[in-house]
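User: Working on a comparison across species. This one is Protein-export membrane protein SecG from Spirochaeta lutea. Can you predict its structure so I can line it up against the others?
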Amino acid sequence: MGILSILLLVIFALSAVLLVILVLVQDEQGEGLGGIFGGGGSGQIGNRKGNILTRATSILGFVFILSSLGLAWLNRTPDLGNVEAAARQQNAEQSVEWWNESQEAENSQGSAE
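Assistant: Here's the predicted structure for Protein-export membrane protein SecG from Spirochaeta lutea:
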């Protein structure tokens, strides 16, 4: 693994742990999902300013998503990108081998007689 991949993995793990901690520390100011779907919220959407915990949660969520996308991009396997073509090639190779084996068996039986 490259240094960049290790660095992204550390950032990913730290942001995940800190994100869980920040979400657990926040107090329940809103009404949860009921407030989102018109459950009688007192303020307009987008009019409310968040405190430091909500802003830190948003920033950590953004860092978490970016690091996960970065890890996925760095650890991709370009050789195995087309799974369907690889499966067809493997199936074709197996069927050719099966065909060759049956021909060889017929040839050996014909020469033995």
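For your comparison, note: The chain has a mean pLDDT of 75.

User: Helpful, thanks.
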